[in-house]
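Action item from last week, closing it out:
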Amino acid sequence: MRRFFKQIHIWLSLPLGVVMSLTCFTGALLIFEPEITESVQRDYYYVDSVGDERLPVAEVVALAESHLADGQRITGVVIPADPSRCYKVNLSEPKHAAIYVDQYSGEVKGQPERLPFFRVMFRLHRWLMDTRPADDGIYWGKVIVGISTLAMVVVLITGIFIWVPKSIKMWRNRSTIAVRKGWRRFWYDLHVAGGIYAVLLLLAMSLTGLTWSFKWYNKGFSRLFGVDVTASAAKSGGDRGKHSVDISPYAHWDAVYNSVADELEHPANITLSHGKASVKLAGWGNPRAADNYLFDNSSGEMLSVERYDDIDRRSKLRGWIYAVHVGNWGGILTRVMWFLAALIGATLPLTGYYLWIRRKFLCKRDCKYKECPHGER
């Protein structure tokens, strides 16, 4: 059985290993994109100086509206708990676009763009730089990444059967990376020990990442957790987003914000949109978790509260899939762990190629190592 798993392990890795390595490497680089982006473009995200009074939300929105491009509209405003951070005015398009405004001075900081380096890394990670076909043809880049990720799941599982030690002595040998026994031994140990340490995290990344690659997998994965992805999400609140043409749609947002903020025990990021105020929950877990306060947009009257614990499983699952995929469910600690595991994952196919070439073409019959770093055990 072990020999059978080894053959599967090798013959899936040989043709797809480069894509696996590239996907892991680019994924590792994307983990800390928010921090790097804010560091490079700090002027967009932070106010010049913290003042005594903030501008009304309606005035902030009016300032942002003067900088909208054709077809863009404002969908909400994020009021941060940190007073040194600018208001974030969310836009309808493109995806994740926003304009940042200094809520004290009224200065419109502008609309930051994704750094070119991370734009390239993301396109490599998801689509191998391919573009979506205009005629609904096969999205080859996405398909290849999906197939490679699916193959990586099989490779990781077969690797467990091949390499996981069966005794304490073997565990000591296979969980240590020798750095003074030559390069051949080092690459062998990096492949075996690195795989043992990172396999569970890599499986978590791969299994969640596949939900973006294949619709059939996404449906099956969701049903595994009791979620029917074909069911349409119910729109709560009825006509709460409608407003009179004579009243600014943002006229009552300040009152709603103050009402919600007064109920909180600790400061939190609050996102105001038409008829809804979302309070981001702090702590470990789903980083998209939020309590929603529904209100009448035309009068500001509070209608109801939707607690995160009470929302549908579908909404929770989407947040958890992303959180587990990028490792941000446990703060900086888990993100560092995911970063290191992804880097190890990027080395596994490369060290695997080396071991296969050594064993196939260069390995001598009598190896001086007890556990051959380039041949059969």
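Closing note: The CA atoms of residues 180 and 186 lie 8 Å apart.
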